[in-house]
Amino acid sequence: DAKTTQPPSMDCAEGRAANLPCNHSTISGNEYVYWYRQIHSQGPQYIIHGLKNNETNEMASLIITEDRKSSTLILPHATLRDTAVYYCIVAISGGYQKVTFGTGTKLQVIP
Amino acid sequence: GAVVSQHPSWVICKSGTSVKIECRSLDFQATTMFWYRQFPKQSLMLMATSNEGSKATYEQGVEKDKFLINHASLTLSTLTVTSAHPEDSSFYICSAPGWRGENIQYFGAGTRLSVL
User: Fold this and answer.
1) Does any CB of chain B come closer than 8 Å to the CB of residue A46?
2) Which end of chain A is more exposed for a tag (fewer CB within 10 A), N or C?
């Protein structure tokens, strides 16, 4: 899996949009960008993934740059329950490929 | 959605004993599951890939005789920590890729192991 780089921590005011960046400059053409989050003492939770187009679901939006070397996860209206560690991962889609976690970004949503 | 159940959620054992952790896919079949270990304030570290009907594949540095993995059915993988010692105390998490072939991982809630 390609390596990703994320800031170790970020703060966001409750109700505001949280924008979490990720650099993946060595991503391969067949690798997707996945985002997961882990709330304290729980198993990680899948959020969203994409190849090159922007994606949106009920949890978040994913913006991938045209050169695919970086991406941003957007939580449009952060709540206190969004406080978690967010992991950006690049991996091949299809089949049952192992996933390697980096250090992630600790997002603290502040009241 | 895909649900992965992990049991027990918390276990305390004496040094030298063995502990078994179960990981079940409740509403889908999983020919492959993954086991991770997480120490406090650290990221998840992949330990091994569990394959239904065949031997597990262990990551470099993980002792296969210490961490026994059995994947006897399409919905159940077990991790047994043999002769546990205090340094094995950790948060163990399993995952299974969903059925849609998109490599989306569904995780169990984790098992906190404390070895006294």
Assistant:
1) yes
2) C
